[in-house]
Amino acid sequence: MAAQKQIDTVAFLTAGGLAPCLSSSLGYLIEAYTIRSPATRLIAYKGGYKAGVLQLHGGSPIGNSRVKLTNVKDCVKRGLVEEGQDPQKVAADQLVKDKVDILHTIGGDDTNTAAAQLADFLQSHGYSMTVIGMPKTIDNDVIPIRQSLGAWTAAQKGAEFFANVVAESTANPRMFIIHEVMGRDCGWLTAATANQYMKYLSNHTMLPELFVDHSRLAVHAVYLPEMVIDIEAEAKRLKAIMDEFDCVNIFISEGAGVKDIVKEQEAKGIEIPRDAFGHVKLDAVNVGKYFGDTFAAKIGAEKTLVQKSGYFARAAPANEADRTLIRQCAMVAVDCAFQRVGGVMGHDEEDGSKLKAIAFDRIKGGKCFELATPWFVALLESIGQPPSKVADHVVPPAGHSSMSSGEHGIFGFDGGDAKFRPPARAGAAKHSLEEAGMAVPESLGA
């Protein structure tokens, strides 16, 4: 094992949209450094928190940014730098001033790539800093990471959200409810949320003589960005459901059909706004409303209700499965910090799902959901939805997409009854390193 190097100062940064892993990741990283190196100075650009308390909260206790340092025009527009200043240099100067040895970034592919560019910038100017990322995205779409942090929680919370919303089907005849779920390019979260909801529904007592009936409360369709959606065929199928049960409930990704919708809008001369990273602003496209308007007349809906669970799901505290995964990643991340090994923490799908720091140049966004994943195939069969063709833009992932929840354990990702139990605090670092197959340093009783 490489010799440990002293760490004087560690900085934390969270960026991008919220996810249920942000507070928990900070908490476990702080805990790991407290165990391994109590003398290390821990800083963030907002302070005043305690590690244990963070497991109970969602959001980010140090605030998030949605800034791309290489987009100078946007940084000037936001008032972050003055005209003529280099945003990367301004950020780098602050890190040098704070004498940061290790920068832990908690964000998606854009955040971690930007941090790596910043580290390269510093190195080119004679300052060495190691960047270690934690993969935050509820979309679960980071290549080549098997499971991103916070996604399991978001699926669970999205299912809980709809469990209340679906009761609106009793408020009006021929009710059409659209549950729009986050997911720009990847349908994993929508699929997992629908799967979790149907599991939830199967465990509840029904009263079919009234409106408390499984067929009324069920998911009737799931539409993902990876699918070619046959509107006419689906409208015919859904109209039959509407005629029989007086309601239709669909789950749709916010990115489903976006490429076609944008192409259609731009052909009409309508300009679609984009963010600092060049992504289409999905609220401007409004997929839920588009599909609501498209389907409503075809299925004879009397009232259409579009409900978005995104903010409810992404701001939640991490659940047990996610906290287990986060703690494991955090413990190994701190071990990598002492060895000055940079990268993004995750189970590498291209290396036997081994947990390690994955090189930044291998990190990419936009991983697609595999429509042939067994649990998703079973879900569609259970709701009577025919399989869809795969959209032309889809790049097949390394294999079947990960499980829809962490209820069966997170290390093998193959199901079964094994369930990881977080170790007692005193032995947490040692246990997590052993579980990940990492060498345990002498200071932890190897």
TrEMBL record:
The keyword Kinase applies. SUPFAM superfamilies: Phosphofructokinase. Its cofactor is Mg(2+). Signal peptide: none annotated. InterPro entries: ATP_PFK, PFKA, Phosphofructokinase_dom, PKF_sf. Residues 55-336 form the Phosphofructokinase domain. PANTHER family: ATP-DEPENDENT 6-PHOSPHOFRUCTOKINASE 1. This is Phosphofructokinase domain-containing protein. It comes from Prorocentrum cordatum.
